[in-house]
Amino acid sequence: MNKEHFLIELKLYLNQLSKEERQAILDAYIQIFDEKSALGLSEYEITQALPSPKNIAQNILEKLGLTFDTQSDYEDDWIEITHDTTYQDEAYNKYIPHNSRMNRLFEMLGITLLNIIFMIWVILLIAIILMSGWLVIGIFLASPLFSLFILGTAISTYAWFQFFVSLILLGIGLLGFIIIRPITKGAFKLFMIYHQWCWSVLKGGSTK
Fold this sequence. Notes:
7 helices, elongated, DUF1700 domain-containing protein, membrane, transmembrane, transmembrane helix
């Protein structure tokens, strides 16, 4: 069972509730899917770990003092898909993890080669560029302090000129800080997404 089928089935079993109540419950399970997907689990693995939509709906309705209708009208046209159901359709089979040793070997080898030959250098280059940018920005931001020190030790036309230039560098540094901060956060976020994807593959997830 995939995420879409799980949510549709749960929604149908909760047909006794109001639209707002159903949506609140569905939103909660959508969040569960999103959180577990971020950890590298496939939709198939998530639905395997969760109770069936029928059991979830039954527990919710019982807590609300409602009777669970096992003979709902939609059951004439809707076939419940249980965790043990075997799917022949490709749309469902893609969520079933492939644990073939040969597939796992090629996946691990592919990820390793991808990281060693290409990704590690890309990540290293981006890290060097960002670190260099932060270093330059730090120097620009600190330049007025050095100028004030020089101005305090020897007041001269050159010292005043240097102080004026340091103020310009300070402005450039502040502008650079505003620009590089979101870039750094975005790069780190992309790195974490890639890191999670690599781990999901190494743990047996799909590369699709």
